Amino acid sequence: MPRKTISLPEDLAEFVDENHINLSRFVQDKLRELADSENQQEELDDDQAKEIADKLRQLGYLE
Asked: Organism's domain of life (predicted)?
């Protein structure tokens, strides 16, 4: 499986460590959810897009 590198702000990295989150599994699951929803529905409505963006922003993927 190809590996990708992501950067996390220090506070999020600490959160991941403190909560013993398997970040690789978490990201894979979220990406699968997005891919599945895309396969089921061509476009996200505005509320769904905002919810996803908020989650990604909280995780430090969007600034």
From this structure: Archaea
Domain ranges within the chain, ordered by starting residue: 24-63
Q: For the whole model, what pTM was predicted?
A: 0.51
Give 3-state DSSP helix, strand, coil % of the chain, rounded to 5.
65, 0, 35
Q: Which helix (H) or strand (E) holds 17?
A: helix 10-18
Residues 52/44, Cβ–Cβ less than 8 Å:
yes
Q: Are 9 and 60 in contact (CB under 8 A)?
A: yes
Return the structure tokens found at 13. Answer: 């990295």
The stretches in the chain having pLDDT less than 50 are none
> 39: helix, coil or strand?
helix
Amino acid identity of residue 54, one-letter, is D
